[in-house]
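Pilot study result, target chain (446 residues):
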Amino acid sequence: MEKRIVILGGGESGVGAAILANKLGFDTFLSDFGKISDKYKQMLDAHSIHWEETQHTESLILNAQEIIKSPGIPNDAPMIEKAREAGIPIISEIEFAGRYTKAKMVCITGSNGKTTTTSLIYHIFREAGLNVGLAGNIGSSLALQVAEGDKDYYIVELSSFQLDNMYEFHANVAVLLNITPDHLDRYDHKMQNYVDAKLRILQNQKPEDAFVYWKEDPIIQKELPKYNHGKLYPFAEKKSTGLAAYTEEHSIIFTEPTPFNMELEELSLTGKHNLYNSMAAGISANVAGIRKETIREALSSFKGVEHRLEKVAVIDGVEYINDSKATNVNSCWYALQSMKTKTVLILGGKDKGNDYTEIANLVREKCSALIFMGADNSKLHTFFDSFGLPTADAKSAKECVQAAKKMAKEGETVLLSPCCASFDLFKSYEDRGRQFKEAVLELKTI
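Predicted structure:
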């Protein structure tokens, strides 16, 4: 009898897993408790895969030999708990896809900078002419790419949720950028649970593999001795022994495996956080044997990532910046730190157990006004009202931009860097960012 695989969640990850499972000859069924978009229904139907939406039929799910869970479904969801009680193994789409490819895996995680660094590494590998795929939190699902024609390398952005359900998967190059509080609502509000999830990127690494990490991160320093890992390639801003990259006299110095330098002003991305992202990307490419000339050129030509400090427009002398991808406090800290003018900061959304103390000093120093865009802004008012800054509340991107137009003075910046998830008012952080950009561009026509 053929093995039965059930996929929970009908988005990019789930549908990719279903197509791969079906291609491999498994008895495949996909179930989504919400609605499945038309695009994904058409993909499932084209492969004759059975699916259901707006419900989970227990009799069709709990007869699985293995369940592939989409990362957005919490581990304490009722159907997941029932499957666990029934003794059914639950894995991620990345874990499943990894079984059926011999490609080298370059995997990136961290609380902040994942998407930029992943996109940057992918850009370098592509510029080097390698047969490479972009997967994980961005790009097409890894499973779909494995099903449709394998690659030699995959550059994979991994969230803590994806790492939670990965067991045998092996990262040839593991990149850990930083660890700061995030998603604590999914980890019983215990930081150590979240830290443990991030460090799972090291599981199954062999001595010949590479671990690229920010040496100055106190949590990584503390946790590293507990884990097996590949050869260490640490990076930091200031020179010290054993670093694979550091800065000196307006240059990044890459020390191994192939030593080379690059002028800081040649980097396409600016700001300290992007310096670290560029170092991590450069080391990863260097480890893969890409020529130093190609790495230099690619770090200079990269165009950046949508929704990450994305310049939208300058209207009436005010610059509008979309940093909707800043879904945690530390990410907003980096954004504020890079602001060169007084800033009207837009915060708010679905709070994940945030502590805003981290940005308090920067808000006092850099901000001229605050706009709270969320279904419930009471926690933001409680924390920030005592700062004495003008505030406004908004329930949509349009309201928010109209408030910003009134509050921002010529020469200032309006920064959407929300610290929060988007699910209270928007479908996703991408939806939030696009609605913000549309509302800004409408100002031009008024």
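One observation from the pilot: Residues 4-91 form a domain with the Rossmann fold fold (CATH 3.40.50.720). A full batch analysis is planned for the follow-on phase.
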